[in-house]
Amino acid sequence: MIYTVSDLHGCLEDWQTLLDTIHFSDQDTMFVLGDCVDLGPDPIGLLHDMMERPNVFPTLGNHELSFVRSVQTLPPEATADNFMDYLTDDARAQLAKWAADGGQRTLMQYLALDEEDREAILDYIGEMTLYEEAEADGVSFVLTHSGITGFDPEQPLDEYSPADFLNANPTPGMEYFSDRTVIVGHTPTYLLRGGKAGHILDDGGIIYIDCGAAHKDIGGRVGCLRLDDFEEFYV
Protein backbone atom coordinates (compact mmCIF):
# COMPACT_ATOMS: atom_id res chain seq x y z
CA MET A 1 0.00 0.00 0.00
CA ILE A 2 1.08 3.58 -0.67
CA TYR A 3 0.42 6.29 1.92
CA THR A 4 1.14 9.99 2.20
CA VAL A 5 1.17 12.44 5.09
CA SER A 6 2.48 15.98 5.53
CA ASP A 7 3.38 18.67 8.06
CA LEU A 8 4.05 16.37 11.00
CA HIS A 9 5.91 19.23 12.72
CA GLY A 10 7.69 17.22 15.37
CA CYS A 11 4.67 15.17 16.43
CA LEU A 12 6.65 11.96 16.92
CA GLU A 13 4.06 10.16 19.07
CA ASP A 14 1.28 10.92 16.57
CA TRP A 15 3.49 9.64 13.75
CA GLN A 16 4.19 6.38 15.55
CA THR A 17 0.53 5.97 16.45
CA LEU A 18 -0.37 6.51 12.79
CA LEU A 19 2.04 3.80 11.65
CA ASP A 20 0.49 1.41 14.17
CA THR A 21 -3.01 2.39 13.07
CA ILE A 22 -2.38 1.62 9.40
CA HIS A 23 -0.28 -1.45 10.25
CA PHE A 24 2.60 0.02 8.26
CA SER A 25 4.91 -2.76 7.09
CA ASP A 26 8.09 -3.24 5.08
CA GLN A 27 5.91 -3.89 2.02
CA ASP A 28 4.27 -0.45 2.24
CA THR A 29 5.49 2.96 1.11
CA MET A 30 5.03 6.27 2.92
CA PHE A 31 5.63 9.68 1.35
CA VAL A 32 6.06 12.50 3.89
CA LEU A 33 5.45 15.85 2.21
CA GLY A 34 7.73 18.15 4.15
CA ASP A 35 7.69 20.22 7.34
CA CYS A 36 8.68 17.44 9.70
CA VAL A 37 10.48 19.89 11.98
CA ASP A 38 9.50 22.88 14.14
CA LEU A 39 6.42 23.74 16.21
CA GLY A 40 5.83 20.32 17.77
CA PRO A 41 7.39 18.51 20.75
CA ASP A 42 10.08 16.27 19.19
CA PRO A 43 11.24 17.28 15.69
CA ILE A 44 14.69 15.67 15.89
CA GLY A 45 13.19 12.49 17.33
CA LEU A 46 10.80 12.39 14.40
CA LEU A 47 13.63 12.74 11.90
CA HIS A 48 15.57 9.97 13.64
CA ASP A 49 12.57 7.66 13.40
CA MET A 50 12.05 8.42 9.72
CA MET A 51 15.74 7.94 8.97
CA GLU A 52 15.52 4.35 10.21
CA ARG A 53 12.72 3.47 7.80
CA PRO A 54 13.93 2.79 4.22
CA ASN A 55 10.38 2.79 2.85
CA VAL A 56 9.62 6.31 4.12
CA PHE A 57 10.38 8.96 1.50
CA PRO A 58 10.39 12.62 2.60
CA THR A 59 10.12 15.65 0.36
CA LEU A 60 11.64 18.95 1.40
CA GLY A 61 9.49 21.52 3.16
CA ASN A 62 10.12 25.19 3.81
CA HIS A 63 10.72 24.49 7.51
CA GLU A 64 13.49 21.99 6.71
CA LEU A 65 15.09 24.57 4.43
CA SER A 66 14.95 27.24 7.14
CA PHE A 67 16.44 24.79 9.63
CA VAL A 68 19.40 23.94 7.42
CA ARG A 69 20.08 27.53 6.46
CA SER A 70 20.04 28.56 10.11
CA VAL A 71 22.42 25.92 11.50
CA GLN A 72 24.69 24.93 8.63
CA THR A 73 27.45 27.39 9.56
CA LEU A 74 27.52 26.44 13.25
CA PRO A 75 30.73 24.59 14.22
CA PRO A 76 30.71 21.32 16.20
CA GLU A 77 31.59 23.18 19.39
CA ALA A 78 28.44 25.32 19.23
CA THR A 79 26.07 24.60 22.11
CA ALA A 80 22.79 25.96 23.41
CA ASP A 81 24.80 28.29 25.62
CA ASN A 82 27.23 29.74 23.10
CA PHE A 83 25.85 29.30 19.57
CA MET A 84 25.15 33.02 19.16
CA ASP A 85 28.88 33.68 19.42
CA TYR A 86 29.42 31.91 16.09
CA LEU A 87 26.83 33.81 14.07
CA THR A 88 27.25 36.84 11.85
CA ASP A 89 24.63 39.57 12.02
CA ASP A 90 22.96 38.19 8.89
CA ALA A 91 23.00 34.66 10.31
CA ARG A 92 21.49 35.90 13.58
CA ALA A 93 18.68 37.56 11.67
CA GLN A 94 18.05 34.36 9.69
CA LEU A 95 18.02 32.26 12.84
CA ALA A 96 15.76 34.68 14.71
CA LYS A 97 13.25 34.56 11.85
CA TRP A 98 13.29 30.77 11.86
CA ALA A 99 12.98 30.57 15.64
CA ALA A 100 9.98 32.89 15.53
CA ASP A 101 8.40 30.54 12.99
CA GLY A 102 8.55 27.62 15.40
CA GLY A 103 12.20 26.58 15.13
CA GLN A 104 13.29 27.08 18.74
CA ARG A 105 12.76 23.48 19.89
CA THR A 106 14.36 22.09 16.72
CA LEU A 107 17.41 24.28 17.33
CA MET A 108 17.82 23.23 20.96
CA GLN A 109 17.44 19.54 20.13
CA TYR A 110 19.90 19.85 17.27
CA LEU A 111 22.50 21.56 19.47
CA ALA A 112 22.20 18.71 21.99
CA LEU A 113 23.43 16.22 19.35
CA ASP A 114 27.04 15.20 18.86
CA GLU A 115 28.89 16.12 15.68
CA GLU A 116 28.21 12.83 13.91
CA ASP A 117 24.49 12.96 14.59
CA ARG A 118 24.28 16.58 13.46
CA GLU A 119 25.92 15.65 10.17
CA ALA A 120 23.55 12.71 9.72
CA ILE A 121 20.50 14.94 10.24
CA LEU A 122 21.72 17.55 7.76
CA ASP A 123 22.67 14.86 5.23
CA TYR A 124 19.19 13.33 5.51
CA ILE A 125 17.54 16.67 4.85
CA GLY A 126 19.98 17.33 2.01
CA GLU A 127 18.80 14.15 0.30
CA MET A 128 15.11 15.05 0.47
CA THR A 129 13.47 15.41 -2.93
CA LEU A 130 11.37 18.35 -4.11
CA TYR A 131 8.59 16.14 -5.45
CA GLU A 132 7.67 12.50 -5.92
CA GLU A 133 5.57 10.74 -8.52
CA ALA A 134 3.48 7.67 -7.76
CA GLU A 135 0.77 5.52 -9.29
CA ALA A 136 -1.86 3.49 -7.49
CA ASP A 137 -4.86 1.64 -8.92
CA GLY A 138 -4.40 3.35 -12.28
CA VAL A 139 -4.27 6.89 -10.87
CA SER A 140 -1.11 8.98 -11.30
CA PHE A 141 -0.01 11.35 -8.55
CA VAL A 142 2.45 14.19 -8.10
CA LEU A 143 3.38 14.70 -4.45
CA THR A 144 5.07 17.86 -3.22
CA HIS A 145 5.14 20.02 -0.13
CA SER A 146 3.19 23.07 -1.25
CA GLY A 147 2.26 22.77 -4.91
CA ILE A 148 4.06 24.42 -7.84
CA THR A 149 4.57 28.15 -8.22
CA GLY A 150 4.49 29.47 -11.80
CA PHE A 151 3.03 26.22 -13.09
CA ASP A 152 3.24 25.57 -16.83
CA PRO A 153 1.73 22.29 -18.06
CA GLU A 154 4.40 22.14 -20.76
CA GLN A 155 7.31 22.48 -18.31
CA PRO A 156 8.89 19.26 -16.97
CA LEU A 157 8.86 19.00 -13.20
CA ASP A 158 12.64 18.74 -13.00
CA GLU A 159 13.00 22.18 -14.61
CA TYR A 160 11.36 24.10 -11.76
CA SER A 161 13.47 25.76 -9.09
CA PRO A 162 13.44 24.45 -5.49
CA ALA A 163 11.57 27.56 -4.35
CA ASP A 164 8.73 26.74 -6.73
CA PHE A 165 7.88 23.66 -4.67
CA LEU A 166 8.21 25.14 -1.18
CA ASN A 167 5.93 28.15 -0.88
CA ALA A 168 3.16 27.72 -3.43
CA ASN A 169 -0.39 28.41 -2.31
CA PRO A 170 -2.86 26.62 -4.57
CA THR A 171 -6.47 27.22 -3.67
CA PRO A 172 -9.56 25.05 -4.07
CA GLY A 173 -10.79 25.23 -7.64
CA MET A 174 -7.29 25.17 -9.13
CA GLU A 175 -5.98 22.31 -11.21
CA TYR A 176 -2.41 21.57 -12.24
CA PHE A 177 -2.77 18.55 -14.51
CA SER A 178 -5.67 17.03 -16.37
CA ASP A 179 -4.23 13.53 -16.05
CA ARG A 180 -2.50 13.59 -12.66
CA THR A 181 -3.72 14.30 -9.16
CA VAL A 182 -1.50 16.60 -7.10
CA ILE A 183 -1.24 16.10 -3.33
CA VAL A 184 0.10 18.93 -1.17
CA GLY A 185 0.58 19.99 2.42
CA HIS A 186 1.95 23.35 3.62
CA THR A 187 -1.35 25.20 4.06
CA PRO A 188 -3.52 23.78 6.86
CA THR A 189 -6.90 22.78 5.54
CA TYR A 190 -8.73 24.99 8.05
CA LEU A 191 -7.34 27.99 6.16
CA LEU A 192 -8.76 26.83 2.82
CA ARG A 193 -12.19 27.52 1.41
CA GLY A 194 -14.34 24.48 2.17
CA GLY A 195 -11.77 22.98 4.51
CA LYS A 196 -11.72 22.50 8.26
CA ALA A 197 -9.14 21.62 10.89
CA GLY A 198 -8.31 17.97 11.21
CA HIS A 199 -9.69 16.89 7.83
CA ILE A 200 -8.19 16.22 4.42
CA LEU A 201 -9.68 18.36 1.66
CA ASP A 202 -10.10 16.58 -1.68
CA ASP A 203 -10.79 19.17 -4.33
CA GLY A 204 -10.53 16.84 -7.31
CA GLY A 205 -7.37 17.97 -9.09
CA ILE A 206 -5.60 18.85 -5.84
CA ILE A 207 -5.81 17.06 -2.50
CA TYR A 208 -4.74 19.04 0.58
CA ILE A 209 -3.48 16.89 3.46
CA ASP A 210 -2.01 19.33 6.02
CA CYS A 211 -4.59 18.72 8.74
CA GLY A 212 -2.93 20.98 11.30
CA ALA A 213 -1.07 18.45 13.45
CA ALA A 214 0.72 21.25 15.28
CA HIS A 215 -2.53 23.12 15.97
CA LYS A 216 -4.39 20.74 18.24
CA ASP A 217 -5.92 23.65 20.14
CA ILE A 218 -8.23 24.25 17.18
CA GLY A 219 -8.86 20.62 16.29
CA GLY A 220 -5.80 19.93 14.17
CA ARG A 221 -4.42 16.41 13.87
CA VAL A 222 -2.34 14.21 11.59
CA GLY A 223 -4.13 13.19 8.42
CA CYS A 224 -2.90 10.37 6.19
CA LEU A 225 -4.20 9.35 2.76
CA ARG A 226 -3.86 5.87 1.27
CA LEU A 227 -3.46 6.29 -2.46
CA ASP A 228 -4.63 2.80 -3.39
CA ASP A 229 -8.22 3.45 -2.36
CA PHE A 230 -8.28 7.07 -1.05
CA GLU A 231 -9.04 5.93 2.47
CA GLU A 232 -8.26 8.57 5.10
CA PHE A 233 -6.68 7.93 8.49
CA TYR A 234 -6.44 10.37 11.39
CA VAL A 235 -4.52 10.57 14.65
UniProtKB/TrEMBL annotation:
<protein>
    <submittedName>
        <fullName>Metallophosphoesterase</fullName>
    </submittedName>
</protein>
<dbReference type="InterPro" id="IPR004843">
    <property type="entry name" value="Calcineurin-like_PHP"/>
</dbReference>
<feature type="domain" description="Calcineurin-like phosphoesterase">
    <location>
        <begin position="2"/>
        <end position="190"/>
    </location>
</feature>
<dbReference type="InterPro" id="IPR050126">
    <property type="entry name" value="Ap4A_hydrolase"/>
</dbReference>
<dbReference type="Pfam" id="PF00149">
    <property type="entry name" value="Metallophos"/>
</dbReference>
